[in-house]
Amino acid sequence: MSSLDELAAQLDRGRLLTDPDVVDAYRRDEAHLVEPGQPVGVLLAESTADVAAAMRWAHRHAVPVVPRGAGTGLAGGATAVDGCLVLSLARMNAIREINPEDQLAVVEAGVINAELDRAAAKVGLMYAPDPSSYEIATIGGNLATNAGGLRCVKYGVTRDSALGLEVVLADGRVVNTGRRTVKGVAGYDLTSLFIGSEGTLGVITSATLRLRTRPATEPVTVAGSFPSLRSAAEAVSAIVAAGLAPSLLELIDRGTLRAIDEWKRMGLDDVAAMLIAQADGTDSADCAAAMGALFEAAGAEFVAVSSDPAEAAQLLQIRRLAYPATERLGRCLVEDVGVPRSKLPDLLEQIEQIERESAPHGVRILTVAHAGDGNAHPTFVFPPTDDGRVPDAVWTAADRVFRAALGLGGTLTGEHGVGALKRRWLELELGSDAMDLHRAIKAALDPTGILNPGKGF
After folding, report:
1. Taking 90 as the threshold, does the pLDDT of residue 281 lie above it?
2. pTM of the predicted protein model
3. Fewer CB within 10 Å, N or C, the chain?
4. Residues in contact with 75: Cβ distance below 8 Å, sequence separation at least 6, in sequence order
5. How far is 135 from 133, CA to CA, in rounded Å?
6. Phi/psi of residue 277, each to 5°?
């Protein structure tokens, strides 16, 4: 019996795929610039028992395991390595419980983010995290990268909505972390440890998640056009300094707006920068009016305030079109840096300068931002190369942006994760002692190094 036959015999309900043409579809995530390896097979797990059997088998045979959800990651965290078993949790998609009394849900890792939110809406609740890929991204992937989204400026990132996890360890043991209670400080915070660990410490199979009361009325939306990226960013700083609590605050630069306009003809060609904000809750009208006034004080050329759901949907569609519109311009390196919110104007100004100096080398930088969090997404656009390699000029520009963010007291990644793309820069942020601590934790939980090797650090 081959080792793969041995694994197949131990599965509960899962399917083991080995056909090369089928396996190929599972080798990559959305980080297309990362070259994938060749797996020995793909396991379509359907239960925690399947995942545990796979990890016991992999631990015994020293086979690398790369967990994946929907494959929407942008840092290469789910990219296959040679000789690995790709462990797909997409079929583990049961919503086990929606509990309105305790405002929580228990879901499997393959549940789609938006489907959980729609299920919560039926009982007057919501699941707050909403990454741009919320209609296709899975909860397991959100947890693995600590994903954020448009609403995280008010409601926090995925970690802020996670109460507990079910995790399969590298040797196949199943542990439960956290609890269902609002408070709880018994033991180390293992839930937070696994969230954002990108599959390097364990495989998350289910989660207990905090739900929140859904606002009773539609949010009020504020949109403004600005003469410069810096003036838009200064409006963001003013909103934060005023203590306002928008439920959404998104920034779009000129290059992105032009890309959207060339595609959809929405009349955005002459706009240098746009801010889109929303306020929900009982004070939404007052909050929106105050934000509109701060837009104008920062130099906005046009400000519109609306409580009409259709108008709000049209404005948010502009933001959600940003990445697909940018993709039409060439190959893309989609990045994700964060700075203290007061430093966002400085970061955006530096990104503009880097773009001007990179343009003669064929590199454009188009930027959108979860502005209320200080989280910018500069996308480096460049022509395809004959050999498929990323030109040095792209990495040079990215290096400059990363160092600019760190120099402003920021971070290399706000929500995409380190994955395979940013490993070379991680020590710049963490320092050598913290890197040693990361390696010690990894060795304790994964002593044979089989969990998602080559990712994170």
Report:
1. no
2. 0.94
3. N
4. 31, 145, 336, 413, 416, 417, 418, 419, 420, 421, 422
5. 6
6. -130, 155
Locate 112 and state its tokens.
């789609």
CA 326 – CA 434 distance, rounded (Å) = 36
How far apart CA 304 and CA 314 sit, in angstroms, is 13
Q: Could you tell me the pLDDT band of residue 1, with boundaries at 50, 70 and 90?
A: very low
**Alpha helix (H) residue ranges in 105-221:** 113-121, 139-145, 152-155, 190-194
Going from the C-alpha of 264 to that of each of 18, 20, 352, the distances in angstroms are 42, 38, 25
Which structure tokens are listed for 379? 């996308």
- Give me 83's structure tokens: 């000789």
The Cα–Cα gap between 308 and 251 comes to 21
Structural domains in the chain, sorted by start: 3-88 (3.30.43.10), 95-213 (3.30.465.10), 216-320 (3.30.70.2190), 330-450 (3.30.70.2740)
